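re: the backbone from monday

yeah here it is again, tokenized this time
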């Protein structure tokens, strides 16, 4: 009978894993993609926080509903049937069985459900009264000691399946962070499961005292698919392609350099038309730089920019001409003053 129950539980677990794969891969996967990329939801900005919030809410509702349905439909485990903790000893389990079985013994009550409850208590006591079978039931969900390798094989299949699915669902540069997070979470879950099943460290004993280790690990297994999809969403939102960003900056720099070359060539041609001499001294390097930008911009592009740059260049040329005229007037006045001073000195000598 226990072997039949173990086989049934194993078949139910395999069916649940298959349903999880179908649900998250073919139903929730496309739904999450729609939430992230729909223009109606994201208002023209794919991957906005509005879409992410809707996707997270969808995943949370589905995960909560699925776990609530599983918790409501599953039968109570042997510890819950007898009302003892998973770390209870043999004497405590025996006392609890005697107390509870008297309440539901067919000879002691007329409740029509009492025979079924009494039979369930007998099965629970038969499993829990022996320390080795109790430990196997706690860690592997009712499997006997001979089926311990089978329980480890089932756990290994879970990690193998989600390792492959996690890699396939996180392909692409935008999901590189999600792949790292998902594999780190899967590795952490594997470490916890190893320590719990093999090393017998029950980290959640204080939180869920009547729940077996097997049921706690199954709960963590059910939470991994939403964690994987949440990682994908966050990774796609925060992803920034550094290569594309740097390429865009370089292209913007090239555009500005071309515009500067066109403006320099237009300025040089306008100065040549005005007949202004090329600068010397400190301004000579600036003129050389202008020549370089002119060559970089190209004559055709510069000719097209001459018309647009002509007003500003004309103003600059006019200012330069006025400054030059002012300088010439000052030099003439200084020369005239020197000539007048020389004539006065000659007149005094003659007198």
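seq for it, each position gets an aa:
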């Amino acid at each position: 009978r226990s072997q039949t129950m173990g086989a049934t539980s194993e078949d139910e677990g395999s069916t649940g894993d298959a349903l999880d794969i179908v649900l998250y891969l073919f139903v929730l996967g496309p739904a999450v993609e729609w939430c992230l990329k729909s223009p109606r939801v994201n208002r023209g900005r794919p991957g906005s926080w509005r879409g992410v919030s809707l996707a997270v809410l969808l995943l949370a509702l589905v995960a909560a509903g699925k776990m609530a349905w599983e918790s409501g439909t599953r039968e109570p485990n042997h510890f819950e049937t007898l009302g003892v903790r998973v770390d209870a000893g043999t004497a405590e389990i025996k006392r609890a069985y005697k107390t509870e079985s008297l309440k539901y013994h067919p000879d002691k009550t007329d409740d029509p459900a009492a025979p079924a409850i009494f039979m369930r208590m007998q099965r629970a006591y038969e499993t829990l009264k022996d320390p080795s079978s109790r430990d196997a039931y706690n860690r592997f969900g009712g499997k006997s000691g001979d089926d311990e390798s089978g329980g480890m094989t089932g756990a290994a299949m879970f990690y193998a399946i989600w390792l492959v699915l996690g890699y396939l669902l996180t392909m692409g540069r935008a999901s590189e962070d999600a792949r790292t997070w998902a594999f780190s979470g899967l590795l952490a879950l594997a470490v916890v499961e190893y320590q719990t099943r093999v090393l017998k460290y029950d980290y959640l004993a204080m939180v869920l005292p009547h729940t077996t280790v097997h049921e706690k690990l199954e709960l963590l297994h059910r939470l991994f698919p939403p964690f994987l999809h949440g990682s994908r969403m966050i990774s796609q939102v925060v992803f920034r392609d550094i290569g594309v960003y740097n390429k865009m900056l370089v292209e913007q720099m090239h555009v500005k350099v071309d515009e500067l070359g066109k403006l320099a060539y237009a300025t040089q041609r306008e100065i040549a038309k005005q007949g202004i001499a090329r600068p010397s001294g400190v301004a000579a390097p600036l003129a050389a730089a202008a020549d370089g930008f002119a060559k970089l911009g190209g004559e055709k592009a510069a000719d097209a920019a001459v018309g647009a740059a002509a007003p500003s260049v004309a103003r600059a040329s006019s200012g330069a001409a006025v400054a030059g005229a002012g300088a010439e007037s000052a030099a003439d006045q200084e020369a005239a003053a020197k000539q007048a001073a020389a004539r006065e000195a000659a007149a005094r000598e003659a007198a």
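Residues 1-10, 299-328 have pLDDT under 50 and may be disordered. Residues 200 and 345 are 120 Å apart (CA to CA).
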